[in-house]
Design goal:
The chain is α/β, with parallel strands linked by helices. The protein contains 11 helices and 12 strands. It holds the Pfam family PTE.
């Protein structure tokens, strides 16, 4: 058992309960909001988030892991307002989300660059993990990076290596946004391992976007957890295919290598909210409890399988 930092204080890993392993609360660029969203109502948006998240304990969910980091609009004071009003553990992350370039704040500063200093990203990630994020008093519980179909660009590689190094030094687990259609989970595993990260403490996110079970088994056989974490995004892969893929992996004995989630959010400024509801009506925090778990059980999964994916695997993610 280990202490896991949450927005409202540390909890024992044994008390995390049922965990959705990849959910956002707000994906909201603050610079964009302040300059171009004149209709933003802070109190109303917080109240909407509270209403959505407050329903989760009644659906059997006790904890969410929120991998909103630099590049996705991480802003802890807003999340703290929400967390104070819900009976839910919220674990936040540190890292950088980019598919291409490094943010300009780090473009010229780092090993071998114009301002040649040790990697500042690693230092900042470690500070978030050990001291806290800004002046909020909230410590990050895990690390986040991304690799998309653009591949291992110099910016992506630099972030990934900094994340791997921070994990190796701190023991903190990692979640990686990947594109399974390009095999990028295997690329991420190679880079993170080169930096000393323990692959058993890595979730290869968005693995559920593919039905290529052989690829998924290769990722899992290297030790990592498979993020079957986009339930509700049926435009990327239909519901039936997502369920069938999880069932096939269970049949092959990979229950201890999967975690579940939606990659949903209360608010995301990438899409018009009404258009989002029309195109992906089931992309919300309730979908797994209301639709996915019944479908898995009907398809042959056992309650032990469900508990393994929702309780045991997230707990060991922090304990290993």
């Amino acid at each position: 058992m280990v202490a896991v930092p949450t927005v409202t204080g540390s909890v024992d890993s044994a008390d995390l309960g049922r965990v959705l392993a990849h959910e956002h609360i707000f994906v909201l660029g603050e610079e964009y909001r302040q300059n171009f969203q004149a209709d933003w109502d802070e109190d109303a948006k917080v109240a909407e988030a509270v209403a959505e998240l407050a329903a989760l304990p009644g659906l059997g969910i006790d904890t969410i892991l929120d991998p909103t980091v630099l590049g996705l609009g991480r802003y802890l004071p807003r999340v703290q307002r929400v967390a104070a009003q819900v009976d839910l553990n919220i674990v936040v992350a540190t890292g950088v989300y980019t598919y291409n370039e490094i943010p300009f704040q780090f473009h010229y500063t780092g090993p071998g660059l114009l301002f040649d200093v040790p990697e500042p990203l690693t230092e900042l990630f470690l500070k978030d993990l050990t001291e806290g994020i800004a002046d909020t008093g909230v410590r990050a519980g895990f690390l986040k990076c991304a690799i998309e179909e653009q591949g291992l660009t110099p910016g992506v590689e630099r972030v990934m290596r900094a994340v791997g190094a921070a994990s190796a030094q701190s023991g903190a687990p990692i979640t990686v946004h990947t594109n399974p259609h390009t095999g990028s989970g295997l690329v991420a595993q190679k880079v993170l391992a080169e930096e000393g990260a323990d692959l058993t403490k890595v979730v290869i996110g968005h693995s559920g976007d593919t039905t290529d079970v052989d690829y998924l088994c290769a990722v899992a056989d290297a030790g990592s957890l498979l993020g079957m974490d986009r339930f509700g995004l049926d435009v990327l892969l239909p519901f039936e295919d997502r369920v069938a893929t999880v069932l096939e992996l269970l049949r092959r004995g990979y229950a201890e290598r999967m975690v579940l989630a939606h990659d949903a959010s209360c608010f995301i400024d990438w899409f018009d909210p009404e258009a989002k509801r029309q195109v992906v009506p089931r992309w919300n925090y309730r979908h797994i409890s209301e639709d996915v778990l019944p479908a898995l059980l009907e398809g042959g999964a056992t309650q032990d399988d469900i508990d393994t994916m929702l309780v045991h695997n997230p707990r060991t993610y922090f304990e290993r």
